[in-house]
Amino acid sequence: MKQILVVEDDPDIQTQMKWGLSKEYNVLQALDRPSAIRLCNKKKPLVVTLDLGLPPDENNATEGLSCLRDILKKAPETKVIIITGNNDRENARKAVQMGAYDYYLKPVDMNELKVILKRAFYLSEIESENRRLHMILNREAGFAGMIGQSPEMQKVFETIRKVASTDAAILIMGESGTGKELVARAIHEKSTRNQGGFIPINCGAIPATLLESELFGYEKGSFTGAYARQKGKFEYADRGTLFLDEIGEMPPELQAKLLRFLQEKKIQRLGGRKDIEIDTRVIAATNIDLNRAMQEGKFREDLFFRISVISINIPPLRERGFDIKLLANTFLERYKVIFKKKIKGFSRSAVDELERHLWPGNVRELEN
Prior knowledge:
By secondary structure, the protein is an alpha/beta fold.
């Protein structure tokens, strides 16, 4: 049962509050500031109702405001509801400015007070959950911005730790929007190549005629418009990592050139005859079934085995359970700073809706 502390020196109001709230809450009671502070320190109630007119001077708000200050100093997350007379609105507003959650004017209507209490507990639970999520986020930092507490993502993180120190080619598989490039970046950052560049290129976003020159570079005069020698992505990734996203979209003729590099660690620029030795690690990613692509003759089997010395499967968001709420809170914290909005968190119904959704666009869809 949820716990509430009632700080009130009037015995009649104490009895009314005890009788009216005890069916729904475990009601603690204090008559003055010292006993209220002792109970707060010992029982740590999430919600406190506080009468400003406390002894030794019940006609003055000084003791009540001091009690409020002491409670919030020890436990600033406590929701303190001020209960005061109709002629003391000014001190009630002052209490809210000091950090009280809300104020309520006597005489006490239990039904109205219960609504305020319910809202206070609800907000307290949201804030508590957000603090817990922040602790998790801080604990999981260091994976190039990736967040995940689900067993599926913990396996991915453990694989990253194991493979980062090797130089083996890696194939990352997963649906669109699951964060394949983030995984590739995390591997690069935790590797001995992290002082070199991380060079990404999307093989499906560039026409085949341009993809070759983007990857391998070209010599002056090798084609119309080649007015000067130009390095390609391979050379820029020397001593670093080359990330080939959507490798399943790579044209067959370029697959052969990539295979040659993986075998010999050498490339030739377009229009060039000189072999250039390149020291780079290749990480590839795909959202299509490469086994099916091989059966259909769209992807070379020998290349597949070269790029998939180590394979990492990124689970879709719908299979990551608690991570949905964790990621949603991460994005909320990020964008409320960007847009300068004060938002406490997600309601239970909102979280339920997020967790029911199938997220075909995965993490990218959730962020958007």
